[in-house]
Amino acid sequence: MILRRILFVQLMVIALLAMMLGPARAESRLDVVATFSILGDMVQQVGGDRVKVTSLVGPDGDTHVYRPTPKAAKAISQTKVLFVNGLEFEGWIKRLVESSGFKGRMVTATVGIEALKMEEEGHHDDHDKHGKKDHHDDHDKHGKKDHHDDHDKHGKKDGHEHHNHGEYDPHAWHSLANARIYVRNIVDGLAAADPQGAKAYRANAERYIKEITSLESEVEKAMKSVSADGRKVVTPHDAFGYLGSAYGIKFLAPVGISTEAEASAGDVAKLIRQIKKEKISAIFVENITDRRLLDQIVRETGARIGGTLYSDALSKANGPAGTYLDLMRHNIRTLVKALGS
Ligand code: ZN
């Protein structure tokens, strides 16, 4: 009997402790927000179990055309740290921050990277024609509000005049060297918001950077099986400039840096001519974009689909690119498999 009573008391104590610790523990985690899933994963890797990350644009989501929800505004109003990619990847963030009453710390993950200027060749000729300067003048003239109204009015068809991107290519995470800079910016942001966790964040970051560096040598080795001539690839939008620049791969796309614009018939015809002329054999689909245009290009060129590349978002957790490192590994494997000898 006595034993049973002791057991009962013990169980009660355990239950009480669980009740006390459960919610308290959840609350003590630092709530942070990242604009998109790839960055969200990097923040989670560095934050570990001290941090709870909400990604505004989730797996397979397209950040370029994202429209903030009331839930996103609420998350931002409550967070202490907001992680953004920067380089105008999140064209909508400024307005969202202003309207949500955000009072925390904003950390831009690309600070300190060597940003690639937008390419001025190929389909980008159109850019030159319209003129970058004019485009920006337009911005200034109409102001931001009008610009957005314009979007709604004209719809996507007039996309060419409404590129919502800046002077630089924002897709900097496709370089593993840049990822190390992202991690350093993330550590500094978390440590400033939660000094007690600084040591843990630094330790997590060290471990993570080691994994990044080891993947980097894996990639360098794998790329050796692809001849310099074979490093020509087509993707739906220009998301892989940093990967291309790291490994000498030429990426061509019917659409530019942002998926907001639609390819014109001229852009597509030009790309088809280029695929035929340069004998580009593999075309890749992306997880965030519609593949209809690529199917048309495949029909007209006889090139084949080499697989899916994860450009601006992770896959679902159980997919092939559930984390940033898996995304990079998957993309390289897919490219090497299609291009390698
Ligand atoms: Zn993109």
What tags apply to this protein structure?
8 strands; binds zinc ion; 4-stranded parallel β-sheet; 12 helices; two-stranded parallel ribbon; 341 residues; alpha/beta; 51% helix
Task: Write up this protein.
Helix content is 51%, strand content 11%. The protein has 341 residues and is α/β, with parallel strands linked by helices. Helix 3 (70-78) crosses helix 4 (93-100), helix 7 (176-193) packs antiparallel against helix 8 (198-223) and helix 8 packs parallel to helix 12 (324-339). Strand 7, helix 11 and strand 8 (304-309) form a beta-alpha-beta unit. The strands form 3 sheets. A 4-stranded parallel beta sheet has the order 2-1-3-4, sandwiched between helices. Strands 5-6 form a two-stranded parallel sheet. Strands 7-8 form a two-stranded parallel sheet. The structure holds zinc ion. Zinc ion is lined by residues 64, 171, 237, 239, 259, 311-312.
The radius of gyration computed from the alpha-carbon positions, rounded to a whole number of angstroms, is: 23 Å
Shape: globular
Can you list the strand order of the major beta sheet?
Answer: 2-1-3-4
Largest pleated sheet: 4 strands, parallel
**Would you tell me the overall average pLDDT?**
84
The topology string of helices and strands comes to HEHEHEHEHHHHEHEHEHEH
In summary, what is this structure?
With 341 residues, the chain is an alpha/beta fold. The chain has helices at 2-28, 37-47, 70-78, 93-100, 125-130, 132-154, 176-193, 198-223, 241-247, 265-277, 292-301, 324-339; strands at residues 30-36, 51-57, 81-84, 105-108, 232-234, 250-252, 282-286, 304-309.
